[in-house]
Amino acid sequence: MLVDLRAKKMTGKIAQEALDKAGITVNKNTIPYDPEKPFVASGIRVGTPSITARGMKEKEMVQIAKWINQALAVHDNNDALSKIKAEVKQLCLKFPIYQERLK
């Protein structure tokens, strides 16, 4: 899914960097008729393959969307982003990628 961040007055580059600090991986991405340069971009691309591969469902995706919104709101606050990252890590530990490693 492509998300246009112009309403948040934020570039894709800033969002990608903030979300990375929060433990959430997205890519900055240009949007149609993007006013920004490609290396800055006005949007991010969000995907679900890593989430669904872990077995996460709608409930977890709602929480991840909340974290994305929170992280973008505090994009310049490293302490807040670290707190989100710890919460993301706890969720990921409940849904390991390789189930057989738990046996």
Topology:
Blueprint: E1 2-4, H1 12-21, E2 27-29, E3 43-45, H2 49-53, H3 58-73, H4 78-94
Antiparallel strand pairs: 1-3, 2-3
Helix pairs in contact: 3-4
Describe the structure.
This protein has 4 helices and 3 strands, in the order βαββααα. It has about 100 residues and is mainly α. It has a single domain (about 1-100), classed as Aspartate Aminotransferase, domain 1 (Alpha-Beta Complex), CATH 3.90.1150.10. It has a 3-stranded antiparallel β-sheet, with helices on one face. The longest helix has 17 residues, at about 80-95. The model has no long low-confidence stretch (mean pLDDT about 95).
- SSE run: EHEEHHH
> Strand share of the residues?
5-15%
Q: Give the C-level CATH assignment.
A: Alpha Beta
Query: Remind me, CATH topology?
Result: Aspartate Aminotransferase, domain 1
